[in-house]
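Appendix B. One record, verbatim.
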Amino acid sequence: MRVIIFGSTGSIGQLLVQQALDDNHIVTAFLRDPAKLNNKHSNLKLFQGDVMRYDDVETAIKDQDAVFCCLGAGRKGKVRAEGTLHIVKAMEKSGVKRFICQSTLGAGDSRGNLNFFWKHIMFGLLLRKAYEDHELQEKYVMQSKLDWTIVRPAAFVDGSRTRSYRHGFGAKEKGLTLKISRADVADFMLHQLNTNIYLRKAAGQSY
């Protein structure tokens, strides 16, 4: 498939680019600085642009089969939601339907999955702006007319691609570690191209 990845130079995005190439997809990496993606592959195209500029996004999305979004901005807000809104609008205008968007465990109806520390200290105080950004991001995706899937990973950790993780659990799920490797987040996102299980749904992911 022809896929484009927004957030392609981030810790999830770089892994997603490589895994998509390994699966023989034709990959477009949308990025502001091409020097930040050290990946040379015959099936990889670099599109230099800014997700905060709608015209850049619209141009990049044309003729794609699917769109991935793993935008990050650290503890800051705005980029995830506003950038995602540009992606959604460009997809609706271009007729590209399949959208896989990475959010965070704890957003929306998954807040019950969090423990006290994540609910009140991290997302309540330290990462509050990032959390609110994800909440608004999800709202834009869910209100769209796209064939969307929202992936809600737990806290990122280093580690290999195990393909052994829990996903799609309810808000009262017990025994979650609230951790997931970045490689497995990329794996789960990429897997959505081959299934409609979570079509127009949000799926949590954790060990």
